[in-house]
Design goal:
It is a single chain. With about 150 residues, the chain is mainly alpha-helical. The chain has one domain: Winged helix-like DNA-binding domain superfamily/Winged helix DNA-binding domain (Arc Repressor Mutant, subunit A), CATH 1.10.10.10. It has six helices and three strands; from the N terminus they run ααβααββαα.
Length: about 150
C-alpha cells in the first residue's frame, strides 16, 4: 500500500484528522470559540492569572499569537487582562465567569466527541491505540534527517 491509496494508514490518518477538525470547529464555532482557543481556556481554568508570557510558554506558541488570541477573547467577554500589582509591565489573564462556563461547556463537548470517536472499541483496543499514537508522536518528534540528494 502507498500513501496515495485512500485506504493507506497515511490517508486514513489524514481523513480522521480532517473529520475531527471539522467536528470540533463546528461545535466551537457555535459557542463563539475559535479552534486554537480551547487549550488557552483550559490552561487558565487550571491556573488562572497567568501572564501572557507564561501562557505562550506553556502552550508552546509565540507571544504575539497569544496577544491576538487574548484580544479576540477579551472582546467576546471570555477573559480579562489585569496589570500585575507588583510588576506593572506584566499583564495577568483571568477567565471571566462567562469564560469559566464556556470552558466547562467546551470540555463536555470534547468528551462527547471523544466518546463518539472511540465508540465500539474495547478497552484493550483503546489501550493499544493509545500506545500506537504515542509511538507515532514520538517518531514525529525525532529530528528529521535532511535529504542530501
Amino acid at each position: 500500500m502507498n500513501c496515495l491509496d485512500p485506504e493507506s494508514n497515511y490517508a486514513l490518518f489524514l481523513e480522521i484528522a480532517r473529520l475531527h477538525y471539522l467536528k470540533t470547529h463546528r461545535s466551537f464555532q457555535k459557542r463563539g470559540v475559535y479552534p486554537g482557543q480551547p487549550p488557552l481556556l483550559f490552561a487558565l481554568y487550571k491556573d488562572d492569572g497567568q501572564s501572557q508570557a507564561e501562557l505562550a510558554q506553556s502552550l508552546k506558541i509565540k507571544a504575539p499569537t497569544v496577544t491576538i488570541m487574548l484580544k479576540r477573547m477579551e472582546k467576546s467577554g471570555i477573559v480579562k487582562r489585569v496589570q500585575d500589582e507588583i510588576d506593572q509591565r506584566v499583564m495577568r489573564v483571568y477567565l471571566t465567569e462567562y469564560g469559566r462556563k464556556l470552558c466547562k461547556s467546551i470540555y463536555k463537548e470534547i468528551q462527547c466527541i471523544e466518546e463518539r470517536m472511540f465508540s465500539g472499541l474495547s478497552e484493550e483496543e483503546k489501550s493499544m491505540l493509545n500506545r500506537l499514537f504515542k509511538k507515532i508522536r514520538d517518531n514525529l518528534k525525532e529530528p528529521m534527517e535532511t535529504n542530501t540528494r
